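Forgive a beginner's question, but would it be possible to get a protein, spelled out as residues, together with the matching structure tokens, please?
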Amino acid sequence: MLEIIDVPSEDVAALTLKQEGHFLDFKDKRISPGKLTRSLAAFCNSDGGDLYVGIAEESGKFTWSGFADPEDANGHIQAFEAVSPFGEDLTGEFLRTPGLDGLVLHVNARKSRFVRSDSESRVYKRVGAQNLPVSSEESILALRRQKGLESFEEETVAVALSEVTNSLPILEYLVSAVPTAEPEVYLRGQYLIHGQRPTVAAVLLFAEQPQAALPKRCGIKIYRYSSEEMSRDRLVQDPITVEGHLYAQVYSAVEKTVRLISEAAFLSDDGLRTVAYPAETLHEIITNAVLHRDYSVTDDVHVRIYENRVEVESPGRLPGHITPANILSERLSRNPFVVRHLNRFPDPPNKDVGEGLDTAFEFMRKLNLKQPEILEREHSVLVVIRHESLASPAQQVVDHLNSNESIRNQQARKLTGVLSESRMQKIFEDLIAANEIEHVPGTAGRGYAYRRKRS
């Protein structure tokens, strides 16, 4: 039995003013339960969402029109259970509010690790406020890959077996991992060869130049910009392309990224300045992008270095039930063959699944920098590493003045990441009112400066 929750009338008013969209659907209780399962299947196959049964649309407005009692919704609950049992991808409750009749059935559908179907075994996905059918073999395969149920890494590549059985990477790998094995015997035993063709995983791991066999699918491009925005005319130099088998590629990309950042000096009023990021954070995030990207997507991993941040963008959305909110606590690998075998190289770049991001976050905290931000886009995952302190802007100003004579508004904005001149001025005023700082006598105009309060 689902719980009955009392909801304040003002919350209900706010709810019914919302518009249906990618994460929200209102349905009349009179619609057949089977039709409603399309929304739940679509939510589970996409990014999750909320379905409210008992909120009807009348004259362009949503109005409360609930079930007389919980038993009246039994048919709906039974139909919804066929999509996914409650407690797996679905949670539910009845909503009750003063002054309005009936109970609204609220079902929250989470992004599922499985492909879910409606009551007629049809597959849907959520796009905006629509439930779109997924019917072709290609689109269902793409959805299964997004869920991590199938992986492009298991498909074969039309290249000679010798590309992976007689290469320097496989010989070096076997010397350290399985010194008594013959390359072809080992690769077949690990299901990295099917028939007379190597798999995508085998090519990525052991071909000397995977990019020749899988063009535009497994390179890394590194860009350095001279500003805080991405623009072709702000590129400091031509993008650097990093190729090679994955083990060498990861270490090379990290080394080049760290070097470019160390060389990057940005011009401010005080002259050239540099920023620094934990090398461990850069290593783990670049490694994670290479390991867990979707290799069926024709694109490279992109590393962009800006004045105030580094961005790492990997092709493909997050696999299965993984979301930006649960990525540090949940575990799912899109490319388990790549992950497992890369981990068996000497001094492997990757730890167990999920631990790399934990390390990336930990090292940012150690430097008192804000945690990386993980954003899921339509066709990619973007990780943003900002050079911003966890301390408040006011505390950063005080800390700066503890070891420096003075600070100006523009300096403070560069230091704190506060973009607005007026907002920074308000922070100064608050610090003056708190007797923490004072105006430096004799400074005015663009040179107007502040110092620690003197007795």
Residues 152-210 form one domain. The two ends are 69 Å apart (CA to CA). The mean pLDDT is 90.
